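Purpose: get a first structural picture of the assembly so the mutagenesis plan has something to point at.
Setup: two entries, given in the order below. No constraints added.
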Amino acid sequence: MISALAYLVRTSTRNMIAERARRLRSPRYAVALALGLGYLWLVYFRRSSEAMQPDIAPPVMQALSTLAPVALMFMAAWYWVFGADRKTLAFTEAEVSMLFTAPLSRRALVGYKLARTQVPVFTTSLLWTLILYRDHPGAGAARFASFWLVLSTLSFHRLGVGITRASQREHGIHGVRRAWLPMLAFAALALTTIGALVGARGAILSASGPRQSIAAIVHAVSTVPASWSLAPFRLVLAPVFAPLGAAWSAAMLPALAIFLVHVWWVVRTDAAFEEAAVEASEAQAARLEISRARRGGSGAVLGEQAKRSLPLASHGPPAWAIVWKNYLWLIRTGQLRGLLLPPVVALAAVLACAGRYPLLEVVLGVLCATLAAMMLAFGPITIRNDLRNDLLNLPMLKSLPLSGRQIVMAEVTSSASAVALNQFLMLVVGMLAFSQTDHFPFQRGRVLEALVMAPLLLLSLNTANFTIHNGMALLYPGWVRLGDAGSAGIEAMGQVMLTVGATMLMLFALLVLPAAVAVVAWLSLSWHGGAAIALCGALAGVMLAVESYLLMRLLGGALERVEPMHIG
Amino acid sequence: MISVRGLTRQYGAFTAVDRISFDVTPGEVLGLVGPNGAGKTTTLRCLAGIIAPSAGTVTIAGHDIRREPIPAKRALAFIPDEPHLFEHLTVEEHLRFVARLYGVRDAESRIAPLLAELELAEKRRALPGALSRGMKQKLAIACGLLHDPSVLILDEPLTGLDPGGMRRMRSTIAARARAGAAVILSSHLLTLVEELCTKLFVIGGGACVATGSIAEIIAAHPDLAGRTLEEVFLALTGSEDTSPSGA
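Result (structure tokens, whole complex):
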């Protein structure tokens, strides 16, 4: 029986690698992989030898070795208290259908699940070793073993928590009895550390710079009782940070012991988890079904009922129905919340600071402005409630009584307006944060002017940006990923780089004329004072909007000509 | 109401539909039948404006589908064999979406009876993920019927429906035709075609094999007299099993 499961793991892994290799025959995947690998080499491999120099590393490594156990502890506490572990129990539909009905013990199923987790654990450990210790071949094996041990322990822990909590659900009060002690223990560990951080908040927030803030955090978690609560997690992570040689060997022993305890705990489990596993598997299957349905262009599935809706009158511009539909998508995928939450949280933080923590307010201001700027590049990668989603449903789209231009404009408006709203709110909150400090670099009147014309400029900028993204999907569907975001890996990273790079270049090209007009207007108007910034911004915004409109007209014609077979 | 003249569709060197012509007048139900790969779906997609013909014209309610696509599409409903639904819109929201697109002003008074007729009233707040295959098909049908189209194009409309649903769908198609709609029905269910269609268009290899009422087709092929529709179809499309065991 074990040999059959081993065969399944071995052949599945081999076929997955072969399939990925075959995919590289397509230029899109080959170029994306080359870009992804090039990026990794430039960012990590090339710099790794500098980054790990002993004279630079110690303070950073010391802070990391103190803070990493904190992260690990919070992760484990989260699994126990909030149960963010159900995905760990998920099997594929084929596994549920074939293995759950086969004469296999629960232990065999758990063993199989553990074996499956070793594939990503092994790959991640290898990647980290290659990235961080490329120039230290002698250290490679030891560091790989350290990473593997930490990740395996974490993976076994997740699975153990998943099974224990599933058993708790299936056995009611008896299950609660079985799980209450670790839940309380992990909650207590988390609260101890949170208490230490809250106690040190004055030192952390009033520090003169980020380095001093981090030093205050390190100090807070290094003192009793927080340091005691983090001791087991330091032991798990110790091999990663210990210098090679005797210190590393000494660090490995307790870490290995903790790992073996986890193996014993998980493998000997005979807790009933099948029902929860089937539920988790069904949820996973539903997600896959959505993805497949989108690829196949058929109607897809979400399950459940919709709780919130938006009103839509039955009369008015028909293309507005597409914007309405796409906003419902944003609401129901939680993406609208994701766009509105950061400015709301930042605003709450700024109001809470109320001018008392200038460093934090400057950090918040910079963070808000940075996030708003980053949304220009990464907003279109994540917010895809537009043509890139609907192209997978092209037959339906083409049978609607709308012109191609109307469809393209409605689709672009849906995503561009949502991202522009996020950026505007972030900028407002950022300016508010800056305005409470002495570091405010601009005249307040000018800032007000900028904020007045910001909605128009941001909307134009995002319309241009999303028009380019949608245009690429429409004209080069083989090169752009259609459907929602979701894939990971080096290829996916390369694909993102390719898309962001190409679209940014085109956006800069589109910006040349509006920027030139704005500069000329500024040179003519600035010495008049008054609302020169607002006027120049508005002029640039209108120019960009006109360019985008012309582009959307062209894309509308392309949409009318494109056929389902071109989308694939 | 529907006028097709010399419709041709090529994919590179391959001709999927080859110079076909037919008319469907108000109240008529045309059965488009043919073996797999005969060109039925390509024809229906050309009629619905999803793909462009390589040659020929398609006129829907007096509007050329290429030159005046919007008024043409406003007059028609295309119900494909695989329901194309939006995963994040509920049953009721699908109908509101369609109402806005087609400018159905009395949508409120139409939605409830339509949902009741198609047994979807209890599922009006459900997302497509919570619907069975048959219910998704019913929702696609409801979306097609909401704006009271004068041209109905149906591709295997009974797929996934339960016996009760099939019966209701048959009577709905008949009722729409009686009310003056021009209907094109593509199906492999020859009993359905025989029951509902006033004339047939048999397509094979992308070309017209036979057209007219069943009586007219048999009159043009006297050797098929006395045979069932299935036998007539198999003989016309060259699918008839002529081997000794099949004889």
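The beta strands of chain B are 2-11, 14-24, 29-33, 55-60, 63-64, 76-79, 151-155, 182-186, 199-204, 207-212.
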